Structures are given as structure tokens and as C-alpha cells.
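Session log. Operator J.P. requested a structure for one protein chain; no other inputs attached. Running the standard single-chain path with C-alpha cell output.
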Amino acid sequence: MSSLSGLSIGIYEKALPSGVSWRERLTLAAQAGFDFVEMSLDPTPERLERLAWSKAQRNDLRRAIEETGVAVKTMCLSAHRNWPLGCGDAAVREQGLALLRQALDLAADVGIRIVQLAGYDTLPDETPGDASRERYLDALRQAVVWASERAVMMGLENQEVGYVDSPTTAVHIIEQVNSPYLQLYMDVGNLIVKGLDPLPEIAAARGHLVGIHVKDARLGVPRRVPFGEGSVPFGEAFRRLKAGGFAGPVMIEMWNDDRPDAVEVCAAARRWIEARFLEAGYKAAV
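Structure written below.
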């Protein structure tokens, strides 16, 4: 498990080998020193099938979590890329809402604490505007009712594209919806991708931050930048988080594309990130 006191460090499902069972995936995460794995619900059929898991399949995952000691604490619901909640097509919106309700059911059944929501309000061929954003807000107002019924937190992610482009924008949305079940799951790397100054954006997130994604990135380059080779000011960012009292889950976002040394690469990334947290003043585990 991670060597930090108080912070749980997780790894994105897509950073680990694919084509393995959840028990095997959690075992590999444990070997690499992680506390949890983030489940991906992207638009691919094999991942969306999880929404239709039987009670027995859900119980199997719960047993694997208990026996490996590695939680599935968070879920990345990126399927809304294909079914955005503010889309002008009512059928697309309804499908997006159905996916969200099913995702919250799955989260409640297997013990996932936070469902990360994508900030897509339109399809790529649509023009976003006031109408799409109001539809997106209406969908979130319905979603917080479902989330509160299931006691599952939802976290908006600031993304490199789409409506939710920064923590400042996310907090504005959160304040309009006005529910404790909708907060912010910040992606530090995406701030750099968008050319934003991370320090005031981290300050804007205070009071709403339930978790963070960490990855290295460059302006306009959101993926597959090795840690230490991008432009993310991890030291300054983590010191700002420490000053704000952040102690939520930290998820390392990587895509290892089934490389044979994926587990070793993930473990090395964990050690690198933990070192930056220690330099920022977080304490080592005793």
C-alpha cells in the first residue's frame, strides 16, 4: 500500500493490463502498492456491460475487494462522451441519464464512493451554448436526487474539452445545483493542457474538492506524458493542496496500452508521485 499517511493512492484501470478478471486486476494493483483502482465506464461495449452485471457478479467484485484489500473507490464515467447530458437530441440525453442512474446503482452495490462525471454538454458536431448548458444543469439536478438516494458522491472533472473546462467553471455549476452530492474531482494535468494557472484554480476548488486525478501533461497534450517530462508544477500544486487541508483520494491517470511491464511502470509512477507529496509536506506512513 502507499507510503503516505492519510492519503489513499489509486491507479486508473486502463493503466493495468486488460483482459484480466477484477480479482487479478486488484491483485496487480496491490503488488504495485496501490490502495484502490478506479473503474472505467467508457463508451466501449465491454465496459458498459458492467452496468448490467447480475447480483452474483457484483458480489464477486465485493469479495475480490475484501480478499485483496484493494478498494474500487472511484468510477470514471466517460461514456457521456457519446451520450452528453446537454445534447439537443432528447433520445441521447435520456440515454445519458439512464447510464448515469445505472452507474450510481452499480457504485452503491460494489462500494464505489465517487462517480466522476464528464463535463460534456454536446456531441462534437453540435454547437454548445446557453441551451445546452441549461439542459446539462437540469440533468445534474435530477442526478443529485438519485445520488443522494444511494449515498454516492458525484464529482465533476475539469476536462481538456467541453463545458467543464476548469475548477472555476465546475464550482459555478456546483453552486447552481446546490447539493452536497455534487462536488469536484479535479484533474491537475488538464489545467496545464488548457493553459490555466493551476494555483488559483486549486484555490477555487477549496471546499468542493473530493478527489484529484494526477498526470503529467503539456499545453495541448493531455495523455501519455511521462511523469517529470511535462509541465505540471507538482510541488507547488501539492503544497497548495496541503495548505487547503486536502486529504481525499489521489488517482494516478495513466494509459499503459498493455505493455508487458505495465505493473512496474505503475509502481514507479506511484513512487514518483508519493515523493512529490512528501516534498510538499505530507507525512510518510508509519
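Operator note: The chain has a mean pLDDT of 96.
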